[in-house]
Amino acid sequence: MLKNSFISIISQKEKEENRGSVEFQVFGFTNKIRKLTSHLELHKKDYLSQRGLRKILGKRQRLLAYLSKKDKVRYKELISQLNS
InterPro entries, alphabetically (predicted)? Predict the structure, then answer.
């Protein structure tokens, strides 16, 4: 399972200050996506979790599209942090 490999790039101080930022929300959605993906590998017929995963993927995609339109530099930094 991938439980120990979740993203913890943002420090505790930044978490308290920027909870509404796009980056924070994308990191949270990415963690949820990874958890649900590992869950669905074990439980292939859990259709409610599949639906929840699709909803979270859509939310994250919309946030990333918004950020890419508004600020290309922050978008590229976020993508590089997610890939590492």
Answer: Ribosomal_uS15, Ribosomal_uS15_bac-type, uS15_NS1_RNA-bd_sf
pTM over 0.85: no
18 or 29: which carries more pLDDT confidence? 29
Domain spans of the chain, in order of start = 29-83
51/69 Cα distance (integer angstroms)? 27
Are 45 and 79 contacting, i.e. CB atoms less than 8 angstroms apart?
no
Class of domain 29-83: mainly alpha
Tell me if residue 62 falls in helix, strand or coil.
Answer: helix
Distances (CA, A) of 68 to 14, 73, 82: 22, 8, 15
Q: At what angle do helices 72-83 and 47-70 cross, to 10 degrees?
A: 140
